[in-house]
Amino acid sequence: MIIINGLGVSEGIAMGKLSLREIIRPDISKKYIDDIDAEINRYFSAREQTYKKLDEMYENALKQCGEREAELFQVHKMMIEDDDYQESILNLIKAEHQNAEHAVKVTSSKFFDMFLQMDDDYMKSRAEDVRAISRMLVDSLVGGDLDGMKDIKPGSIVFANDISPGEISKFKQRGVAGLLASSGSKNSHASILARVMGIPTIVGVGDGIKQEFFGKNVILDGSGGEIYIEPDEETHKSFIIKIEALNNQNIELEKYRGKESITKSGKKIDVYANMNNPSELSEILTSDAEGIGLFRTEFLYLGRDSYPSEEEQFQIYKNIGMNMNGKKVIVRTLDIGSDKQEKYMNFPKEENPALGYRGIRVCLNNPEIFKTQLRAIYRASQYGNFSIMFPMIISVDEIREIKNLVLDVKEELSEKGIKFNENVPLGVMIETPAAAILSDDLAEEVQFFSIGTNDLTQYTLALDRQNSMVGDKFNSSSEAVLRFIEIIVKNAHAKNIPVGICGEMASDKTITEQLLNLGVDELSVSPKSVLAIRKNVILSNAK
Ligand code: PEP
Ligand code: MG
Predict the structure, then answer these.
(1) In the chain, what are the helix, strand and coil shares in percent, each to the nearest 5?
(2) Which letter, b or e, does each residue of 303-331 get, where b requires 16 or more Cβ atoms within 10 Å of its Cβ?
(3) Which residue, judged by its Cα, is nearest atom 4 of ligand 1?
(4) What are phi and psi of 426, to 5 degrees?
(5) Catalytic: 76?
(6) Which of 65, 102, 189, 363 does the annotation list as catalytic?
(7) For 299, which DSSP code?
(8) How far is CA 39 from CA 26, 96, 103, 513, in A?
């Protein structure tokens, strides 16, 4: 038995075979082909395979997100059948004896440029779609595995060099039992998502995982941060006992299902859940959360090739609002940038992305992207109990600018005769020291605060939340952050507005009492932590 240590970022014990997530970059260089007919057949069978994959993706998206979201794959199916696209590929094979993958690559860039030059926004956004289908075609032609997921079996424990936030739900869909990464930190979005999805995860194992370990049985202890390669019988038995104890704890917590979260002194605390992807809706509904305290909408923009349309977003928000059946849904507007970005967003490379172009800065610089989202939320507002909050605020001017854009959106909708809730509460995320210091002024502008302790800790302590080298110092309960929370709560309550915490700190069972003593009104936690945090609230002696 070999024991390797890392940083446990998502609790739970996983047992299974260790497999490697390896991204294979296919060779698509230009080659001269003698047998043109065979090459054309190769192309057609790859096209057939891609078409089938798109059909599967359509069905999956339809089940998980609904008709609108799934429509994208129908568009992709139509594009792959497009005569001009196909003719271009076949011509290159026939006239120039090019290998099919190279012909697809050349055609892809030709069509990409052509779409990009079009005036119409809808046609422009098709450029990324051409790229996406071409990638899939190349994948089928050369047997590459751009996601590195092909050989991953359900129930396995997967090792990857590093894991991006967008990949976590793919691992979940694949049914992996646990995740291991050589780098990473506790407060990165990938780790947060692993916790939300309940995948036991250890990061920062460095080069501890050797080639010869793959295919071996391992135990991953996400709480202790230890990986046991080929565990001996005694270790195996002790983990079976631990798993039983964890199951018993969960059974005990079921007592708190359906109970109101009220402290002994009679203060009602809202225990909400955080949502990243709409696919987490069923988990949130079964978690018994009293609402959604943070919907990280940027995940609607990740893992795809173009910005989601207003209609797509509207359908998603509407579906969530209706399913939550009157319970509060706090939608956080687009917080892209830093570790959450995609190629199509065309963000420049930055020296310090966490201090750069992200969150509200991107939205105020691109009012059309921002207003598209606001229109979708307002249109959905008649189907649910929505609130909207804004990330990365550093000044009162920003919130005033936002409120003007909100007014524009409301006017546009009224002019078109579209119904919406006039009184959607607006809130600010307090996650920068600037917002904390200005919280007295900001409290005059909005109806609620939600403290983003992940970023508030990062910016207060000047510690990169992504950097595993300073991970042991990254502590949201450090005195400086706690004092900020105290100031924010006082300033909010002086203006009679409520304060929630939606950073990871809210899910920390050891600190609930302290947060309640500071006067916090709402805790938004990972769905798996709802009952444990409610238990803490009910047993709390806070005033
Ligand atoms: C936070 O910063 O605490 C927060 C909730 O936002 P995110 O983790 O998405 O940056
Ligand atoms: Mg944040």
Answers:
(1) 50, 15, 35
(2) ebbbbbbbebbbbbbbbbbebbeebbbbb
(3) 452
(4) -110, 140
(5) no
(6) 189
(7) G
(8) 17, 12, 11, 68
For ligand 1, whether the C-beta of 485 sits within 6 Å is no
For residue 481 and ligand 1, the question of a CB distance below 6 A is answered with: no
DSSP 27-81: -----B-S-HHHHHHHHHHHHHHHHHHHHHHHHHHHHHH-HHHHHHHHHHHHHHT
Residues across the chain: 543
Nearest to 423 by CA among 448, 401, 442, 451: 448
Q: Percentage of residues in the chain with pLDDT exceeding 70?
A: 96
Start-to-end C-alpha separation, the chain? 51
Residue nearest to ligand 1 atom 10, measured at CA: 455
What is the average pLDDT score of the chain? 91
User: Is the pLDDT score of 68 beyond 70?
Assistant: no
Q: Does position 105 have pLDDT exceeding 90, yes or no?
A: yes
pLDDT tens track for 314-365:
999 999 999 999 999 999 999 998 878 888 898 888 989 999 999 999 999 9
Q: Confidence band (pLDDT; 50, 70, 90) for 13?
A: very high
Residues of the chain within CATH 3.50.30.10 domain(s) are: 2-23+148-252
CA of 332 to the centre of ligand 2 (A): 10
Decide: residue 284, CB within 10 A, 0-12 exposed, 13-18 middle, 19+ buried: buried
User: Which overall architecture, per CATH, does domain 36-142 show?
Assistant: Orthogonal Bundle (1.10)
pLDDT per residue as tens digits for the range 421-432 = 999 999 999 999
Tokens 């199916």, located at residue: 77
Could you give the percent of the chain with pLDDT greater than 90?
Answer: 71
The pLDDT of residue 195 is 87
Architecture of the domain whose range is 2-23+148-252: 3-Layer(bba) Sandwich (3.50)
Mind giving me the DSSP string for 353-396?
GGGSS-THHHHHH-HHHHHHHHHHHHHHGGGSEEEEEESS---H
For residue 453 and ligand 1, the question of a CB distance below 6 A is answered with: yes
Give the pLDDT mean for 200-222: 93
Query: If you take atom 6 of ligand 1, which residue's CA is the nearest one?
Result: 452
| Cβ atoms < 10 Å from Cβ of 77 | 16
Q: How far is the CA of 198 from the centre of ligand 2 (A)?
A: 21
Residue-wise pLDDT tens digits, 138-188: 888 987 666 777 778 889 999 998 787 767 878 888 889 999 998 888 888
How far apart are the CA of 431 and the centre of ligand 2, in A? 6
Query: Which bound ligand lies closest to the C-alpha atom of 524?
Result: 1
What residue spans in the chain does CATH classification 1.10.274.10 cover?
A: 36-142
Locate CATH 3.20.20.60 in the chain. Answer: 255-538
For domain 255-538, give the fold: TIM Barrel (3.20.20)
pTM of the entire structure? Answer: 0.75
User: Is 363 one of the annotated active-site residues of the chain?
Assistant: no
